[in-house]
Amino acid sequence: MRLKLVFRLKSNVISKDYRRIFMSFIKKSLENYDKEIFEEYFKNKDPILKDYTFSVYFGKCRFEENIKLENDNISMFFSTSSYKTGMHFYNAFRAMKYKDFPTKNNILKLNNIIRLSEKNIYKNEIIIKTLSPILIREHNKEKDNYYYFDDENATEILKNSIIYQYNKLFGNGCKSFDIKVLDLKKTTVLNYNKKLKSNLGVFKATGDKEILNFIYKSGIGSKRSSGFGMVDII
Predict the structure, then answer these.
(1) 89/63 Cα distance (integer angstroms)
(2) Exposed/middle/buried for 203, CB within 10 Å: 0-12, 13-18, 19+?
(3) What is the mean pLDDT of the chain?
């Protein structure tokens, strides 16, 4: 399921660390909707693997100390490979329509929800472009390391992460998967006041149709449910 949520802001200025605002909105929506369902996704601080991703679209804007929008509208795109997850969040978002959602320096109001059509995957190869940056993370106890695609071993780290996530969520055994860069833009993003290496661009993904469908609908890489790794098929 793929949704577009259209918000109106009280102020047309928003923090560069904006993903945490929309994460709070997502969590608050689900908690208000059903606390038992909320705990399936956000039980205490358990690192529950999510099957969704999101991205934010500003329209025309200027990146200064904060992000200055040309108008007071902003859109969030939400996507999941799970019908169950999609219906839970769709209903949760509907209950938030026309309600003020205060943030530190702004107020968001959800005015519209649009269900978007999805593309079908018929082959074992797709070309994807990023709608939000891809994070390639190597997780260890001491420190998480983030990589650009052209860093040594970055592609293998990403491939292993995708296969692990797929198997963890679906338990279908290891699936074949590969990804190659066609056009890469390296960038640094702000996430909870931390600057992280991230990747934008166009990529060719090959593998079983099930895992290609997973990355198309639930995102690719680390921190997908934090607003990273959302892609579209071109």
Answers:
(1) 30
(2) buried
(3) 95
pLDDT, residue 67, reads 95
CATH code (residue 100): 3.30.70.1890
Is residue 58 domain-shared with residue 140, that is, in the same domain?
no
What CA–CA distance (Å, rounded) separates 51 from 79?
9
Tell me, what CATH number does 211's domain have?
Answer: 3.30.70.1900
Q: Please report where in the chains the tokens 């066609």 appear, as a residue.
A: 182
Whole-angstrom distance, CA of residue 211 vs CA of residue 223: 18
The pLDDT score that the predictor gives to residue 43 is 85
pTM of the predicted protein model: 0.95
Stretch 110-134: mean pLDDT: 97
Tokens read off for 207: 């593998």
For the segment 167-174, the average pLDDT, to the nearest whole number, is 83
Same domain membership, residue 218 and residue 186: yes
Integer Cα distance of 114 and 6 in angstroms: 8
- 113 phi, psi to nearest 5 deg: -130, 125
Q: What average pLDDT does this structure show over 48-73?
A: 94
CA angle in degrees (0–180, nearest 5) for 20-138-84:
55
Mean pLDDT, rounded, for 122-127: 96
- Detail the DSSP E strand segments found in 50-193: 52-57, 61-63, 67-69, 73-80, 100-102, 107-116, 125-130, 136-138, 145-147, 177-191
Closest CA to 54 of 38, 30, 72, 75: 75
DSSP label at 17?
T
What domain range is 202 assigned to? Answer: 125-233
**Mean pLDDT on 60-88:** 95
